[in-house]
Write a structure and sequence with these properties.
- This protein is of the alpha/beta class and about 270 residues long.
- It folds into 2 domains: about 230 residues, Phosphoenolpyruvate-binding domains (TIM Barrel, Alpha-Beta Barrel); about 30 residues, no CATH class.
- The protein contains 11 helices and 8 strands.
- The protein binds 3-methyl-2-oxobutanoic acid.
- The site of 3-methyl-2-oxobutanoic acid has 10 residues, from loops.
Protein backbone atom coordinates (compact mmCIF):
# COMPACT_ATOMS: atom_id res chain seq x y z
CA UNK A 1 0.00 0.00 0.00
CA UNK A 2 1.26 3.51 -0.71
CA UNK A 3 0.15 6.98 0.26
CA UNK A 4 -0.62 9.73 -2.25
CA UNK A 5 2.25 12.18 -1.53
CA UNK A 6 0.28 15.11 -3.03
CA UNK A 7 -2.49 14.71 -0.48
CA UNK A 8 -1.34 16.61 2.62
CA UNK A 9 -4.02 15.14 4.90
CA UNK A 10 -2.88 11.63 3.94
CA UNK A 11 0.82 12.28 4.60
CA UNK A 12 2.41 9.56 6.74
CA UNK A 13 2.41 10.37 10.45
CA UNK A 14 5.83 10.05 12.07
CA UNK A 15 7.22 10.83 15.50
CA UNK A 16 8.64 14.01 13.96
CA UNK A 17 5.33 15.10 12.45
CA UNK A 18 3.64 14.65 15.83
CA UNK A 19 6.18 17.03 17.30
CA UNK A 20 5.36 19.45 14.47
CA UNK A 21 1.65 19.12 15.29
CA UNK A 22 2.33 20.07 18.89
CA UNK A 23 4.43 23.06 17.85
CA UNK A 24 1.72 24.15 15.41
CA UNK A 25 -1.04 23.80 18.02
CA UNK A 26 -2.73 20.97 16.08
CA UNK A 27 -4.48 18.43 18.31
CA UNK A 28 -3.49 14.76 17.92
CA UNK A 29 -6.14 12.02 17.70
CA UNK A 30 -5.31 8.51 18.86
CA UNK A 31 -7.35 5.31 19.24
CA UNK A 32 -6.59 1.66 19.90
CA UNK A 33 -6.85 -1.24 17.45
CA UNK A 34 -6.14 -4.94 17.73
CA UNK A 35 -6.88 -6.22 14.22
CA UNK A 36 -6.60 -5.44 10.50
CA UNK A 37 -10.22 -4.44 9.92
CA UNK A 38 -10.49 -1.93 12.77
CA UNK A 39 -7.02 -0.54 12.02
CA UNK A 40 -8.01 0.18 8.40
CA UNK A 41 -11.20 1.96 9.49
CA UNK A 42 -9.30 4.14 11.97
CA UNK A 43 -6.60 4.92 9.43
CA UNK A 44 -9.06 5.95 6.72
CA UNK A 45 -10.89 8.12 9.28
CA UNK A 46 -7.69 10.14 9.75
CA UNK A 47 -6.68 8.98 13.23
CA UNK A 48 -3.06 10.11 13.76
CA UNK A 49 -1.82 7.44 16.16
CA UNK A 50 -3.07 3.85 16.37
CA UNK A 51 -2.09 2.12 19.58
CA UNK A 52 -2.04 -1.65 19.77
CA UNK A 53 -2.87 -1.48 23.46
CA UNK A 54 -2.50 -4.19 26.02
CA UNK A 55 -6.12 -3.23 26.76
CA UNK A 56 -6.59 -6.13 24.29
CA UNK A 57 -6.68 -8.13 27.54
CA UNK A 58 -10.01 -6.66 28.61
CA UNK A 59 -11.81 -5.88 25.36
CA UNK A 60 -10.71 -8.87 23.24
CA UNK A 61 -9.43 -11.57 25.59
CA UNK A 62 -12.11 -10.97 28.24
CA UNK A 63 -9.82 -10.92 31.29
CA UNK A 64 -9.85 -8.46 34.19
CA UNK A 65 -6.38 -6.86 33.99
CA UNK A 66 -3.61 -6.27 31.46
CA UNK A 67 -0.95 -8.13 33.41
CA UNK A 68 -1.48 -11.52 31.75
CA UNK A 69 -0.86 -10.28 28.20
CA UNK A 70 2.24 -11.88 26.68
CA UNK A 71 4.78 -10.80 24.06
CA UNK A 72 3.31 -13.38 21.69
CA UNK A 73 -0.19 -11.88 22.09
CA UNK A 74 1.12 -8.36 21.42
CA UNK A 75 3.19 -9.47 18.42
CA UNK A 76 0.17 -11.18 16.90
CA UNK A 77 -2.22 -8.24 17.33
CA UNK A 78 0.38 -5.64 16.30
CA UNK A 79 1.09 -7.59 13.11
CA UNK A 80 -2.63 -7.61 12.21
CA UNK A 81 -2.93 -3.87 12.88
CA UNK A 82 0.19 -2.91 10.91
CA UNK A 83 -1.24 -4.68 7.85
CA UNK A 84 -4.27 -2.37 7.87
CA UNK A 85 -2.50 0.98 8.27
CA UNK A 86 -1.04 3.33 5.65
CA UNK A 87 -0.94 6.75 7.28
CA UNK A 88 -1.18 6.61 11.08
CA UNK A 89 1.79 6.04 13.36
CA UNK A 90 1.46 2.50 14.75
CA UNK A 91 2.56 2.21 18.39
CA UNK A 92 2.68 -1.15 20.18
CA UNK A 93 2.37 -1.60 23.92
CA UNK A 94 5.18 -3.60 25.48
CA UNK A 95 3.40 -6.00 27.84
CA UNK A 96 3.94 -6.32 31.59
CA UNK A 97 7.38 -7.80 32.46
CA UNK A 98 8.72 -7.56 28.90
CA UNK A 99 10.73 -4.41 29.71
CA UNK A 100 10.97 -4.13 33.53
CA UNK A 101 13.67 -6.78 34.15
CA UNK A 102 16.48 -4.94 32.39
CA UNK A 103 17.26 -2.74 29.39
CA UNK A 104 18.74 -5.61 27.33
CA UNK A 105 15.54 -7.62 27.59
CA UNK A 106 13.49 -4.50 26.84
CA UNK A 107 15.54 -3.84 23.71
CA UNK A 108 15.17 -7.44 22.54
CA UNK A 109 11.39 -7.34 23.01
CA UNK A 110 10.94 -3.87 21.51
CA UNK A 111 13.07 -5.04 18.57
CA UNK A 112 10.72 -7.98 18.02
CA UNK A 113 7.73 -5.60 17.96
CA UNK A 114 9.42 -3.57 15.21
CA UNK A 115 10.92 -6.44 13.17
CA UNK A 116 8.18 -9.05 13.45
CA UNK A 117 5.04 -6.93 13.93
CA UNK A 118 6.12 -3.76 12.08
CA UNK A 119 5.17 -1.22 14.74
CA UNK A 120 6.91 2.14 14.45
CA UNK A 121 7.21 2.83 18.18
CA UNK A 122 6.57 1.15 21.52
CA UNK A 123 4.83 2.36 24.68
CA UNK A 124 5.95 1.54 28.21
CA UNK A 125 4.43 2.41 31.58
CA UNK A 126 6.51 4.11 34.27
CA UNK A 127 8.69 7.09 35.12
CA UNK A 128 12.24 7.96 36.15
CA UNK A 129 13.20 4.39 37.03
CA UNK A 130 12.70 3.39 33.36
CA UNK A 131 14.75 6.22 31.88
CA UNK A 132 17.90 4.12 31.26
CA UNK A 133 15.67 1.68 29.36
CA UNK A 134 14.05 4.47 27.34
CA UNK A 135 17.52 5.75 26.45
CA UNK A 136 18.64 2.28 25.42
CA UNK A 137 15.65 1.73 23.13
CA UNK A 138 15.96 5.17 21.56
CA UNK A 139 19.69 4.65 20.98
CA UNK A 140 18.76 1.32 19.41
CA UNK A 141 16.53 3.19 16.95
CA UNK A 142 13.15 2.48 18.54
CA UNK A 143 10.95 5.46 19.41
CA UNK A 144 9.36 5.27 22.86
CA UNK A 145 6.07 6.67 24.12
CA UNK A 146 5.86 7.04 27.92
CA UNK A 147 2.76 6.43 30.05
CA UNK A 148 2.20 8.03 33.48
CA UNK A 149 -0.67 8.52 35.91
CA UNK A 150 -2.94 5.49 35.99
CA UNK A 151 -0.65 2.73 34.77
CA UNK A 152 -2.86 -0.38 34.50
CA UNK A 153 0.08 -2.83 34.48
CA UNK A 154 0.71 -1.79 38.12
CA UNK A 155 -2.85 -2.56 39.24
CA UNK A 156 -1.65 -4.98 41.92
CA UNK A 157 0.64 -2.30 43.36
CA UNK A 158 -2.08 0.38 43.48
CA UNK A 159 -5.07 -1.88 44.14
CA UNK A 160 -7.57 0.23 42.18
CA UNK A 161 -8.20 2.13 38.94
CA UNK A 162 -8.98 5.38 40.80
CA UNK A 163 -7.88 8.80 39.60
CA UNK A 164 -4.16 9.37 40.29
CA UNK A 165 -2.02 12.31 41.41
CA UNK A 166 -4.67 13.96 43.58
CA UNK A 167 -2.05 14.60 46.29
CA UNK A 168 0.64 17.26 45.78
CA UNK A 169 3.31 14.60 46.40
CA UNK A 170 2.05 12.36 43.60
CA UNK A 171 1.53 15.36 41.31
CA UNK A 172 5.17 16.34 41.85
CA UNK A 173 6.24 12.79 41.00
CA UNK A 174 4.34 13.04 37.70
CA UNK A 175 5.97 16.41 36.92
CA UNK A 176 9.44 14.92 37.60
CA UNK A 177 8.77 11.68 35.71
CA UNK A 178 7.42 13.55 32.67
CA UNK A 179 10.55 15.70 32.36
CA UNK A 180 12.81 12.69 32.97
CA UNK A 181 11.10 10.68 30.21
CA UNK A 182 11.42 13.60 27.78
CA UNK A 183 15.10 14.01 28.68
CA UNK A 184 15.66 10.26 28.19
CA UNK A 185 14.38 10.61 24.61
CA UNK A 186 10.67 9.66 24.72
CA UNK A 187 8.90 11.17 21.69
CA UNK A 188 5.47 11.45 23.37
CA UNK A 189 3.73 10.79 26.65
CA UNK A 190 0.35 9.35 27.62
CA UNK A 191 -1.20 10.78 30.80
CA UNK A 192 -4.03 8.64 32.13
CA UNK A 193 -6.73 9.58 34.66
CA UNK A 194 -5.11 12.51 36.46
CA UNK A 195 -6.58 15.94 37.29
CA UNK A 196 -7.09 18.12 34.20
CA UNK A 197 -5.17 21.06 35.69
CA UNK A 198 -2.06 18.92 36.27
CA UNK A 199 -2.25 17.40 32.77
CA UNK A 200 -2.54 20.88 31.22
CA UNK A 201 0.46 22.08 33.23
CA UNK A 202 2.58 19.06 32.22
CA UNK A 203 1.53 19.41 28.55
CA UNK A 204 2.48 23.09 28.55
CA UNK A 205 5.81 22.41 30.22
CA UNK A 206 6.98 19.67 27.81
CA UNK A 207 8.27 19.96 24.24
CA UNK A 208 6.99 16.49 23.33
CA UNK A 209 3.28 15.86 22.70
CA UNK A 210 1.15 14.73 25.63
CA UNK A 211 -1.81 12.49 24.79
CA UNK A 212 -4.48 12.37 27.48
CA UNK A 213 -7.01 9.74 28.49
CA UNK A 214 -9.19 10.93 31.33
CA UNK A 215 -6.79 13.86 31.72
CA UNK A 216 -8.91 16.76 30.48
CA UNK A 217 -8.85 19.06 27.48
CA UNK A 218 -5.47 20.69 28.10
CA UNK A 219 -3.41 17.86 26.56
CA UNK A 220 -1.94 17.99 23.05
CA UNK A 221 -4.07 15.05 21.98
CA UNK A 222 -6.62 12.51 23.16
CA UNK A 223 -6.73 8.73 23.11
CA UNK A 224 -9.57 6.33 23.87
CA UNK A 225 -9.95 2.57 23.68
CA UNK A 226 -11.92 2.03 20.44
CA UNK A 227 -14.12 -0.69 21.91
CA UNK A 228 -15.14 1.75 24.68
CA UNK A 229 -15.98 4.71 22.43
CA UNK A 230 -17.90 2.48 20.02
CA UNK A 231 -20.09 1.10 22.82
CA UNK A 232 -18.75 -2.40 22.16
CA UNK A 233 -17.20 -2.98 25.58
CA UNK A 234 -19.77 -2.17 28.24
CA UNK A 235 -18.66 -4.11 31.34
CA UNK A 236 -17.92 -0.71 32.88
CA UNK A 237 -17.77 2.85 31.58
CA UNK A 238 -15.26 5.26 33.10
CA UNK A 239 -16.42 8.91 33.25
CA UNK A 240 -13.82 9.89 30.60
CA UNK A 241 -15.30 7.59 27.93
CA UNK A 242 -17.68 9.19 25.43
CA UNK A 243 -19.81 6.75 23.42
CA UNK A 244 -19.69 7.79 19.75
CA UNK A 245 -21.83 4.79 18.77
CA UNK A 246 -23.74 1.90 20.33
CA UNK A 247 -22.26 -0.84 18.16
CA UNK A 248 -22.63 -3.49 20.86
CA UNK A 249 -26.41 -3.00 20.94
CA UNK A 250 -26.60 -2.76 17.12
CA UNK A 251 -24.63 -6.00 16.71
CA UNK A 252 -26.72 -7.80 19.31
CA UNK A 253 -29.88 -6.74 17.47
CA UNK A 254 -28.44 -7.90 14.11
CA UNK A 255 -27.49 -11.30 15.55
CA UNK A 256 -30.94 -11.73 17.11
CA UNK A 257 -32.55 -10.76 13.78
CA UNK A 258 -30.47 -13.41 11.99
CA UNK A 259 -31.46 -16.07 14.52
CA UNK A 260 -35.17 -15.16 14.05
CA UNK A 261 -34.84 -15.27 10.25
CA UNK A 262 -33.10 -18.67 10.28
CA UNK A 263 -35.70 -20.12 12.65
CA UNK A 264 -38.61 -18.77 10.62
CA UNK A 265 -37.12 -19.73 7.23
CA UNK A 266 -36.94 -16.01 6.16
CA UNK A 267 -33.24 -16.45 5.41
CA UNK A 268 -32.03 -17.25 2.81
CA UNK A 269 -34.42 -15.96 0.15
CA UNK A 270 -34.48 -17.17 -3.46
CA UNK A 271 -32.26 -14.18 -4.41
CA UNK A 272 -29.70 -15.30 -1.85
CA UNK A 273 -29.67 -18.87 -3.22
CA UNK A 274 -28.16 -20.54 -6.37
O1 LIG B 1 -3.67 -0.32 26.49
C1 LIG B 1 -4.24 0.74 26.18
O2 LIG B 1 -5.27 0.75 25.49
C2 LIG B 1 -3.67 1.99 26.66
C3 LIG B 1 -4.47 3.24 26.46
C4 LIG B 1 -5.60 3.26 27.40
C5 LIG B 1 -3.64 4.45 26.56
O3 LIG B 1 -2.62 2.00 27.21
Amino acid sequence: MSIDPGNESRRKVTTKSLLGMKRGGERISALTAYDFLMAGLLDRAGVDVILVGDSVAMVVQGVETTVTVTMEHMLYHAMLVSRGVERALVVGDLPFMSYQVNADEALRNAGRMVKEAHVEAVKIEGGEVLCPTVQRLVEGGIPVMGHLGLTPQSIHKFGSYQVRATSEEEADEIRRDAVALQDAGAFALVLEKIPASLAREVSNSLEIPVIGIGAGAGCDGQILVSHDMLGLYTRFKPRFVRHYAQLGADMQEAFEHFVRDVRSGEFPSADESY
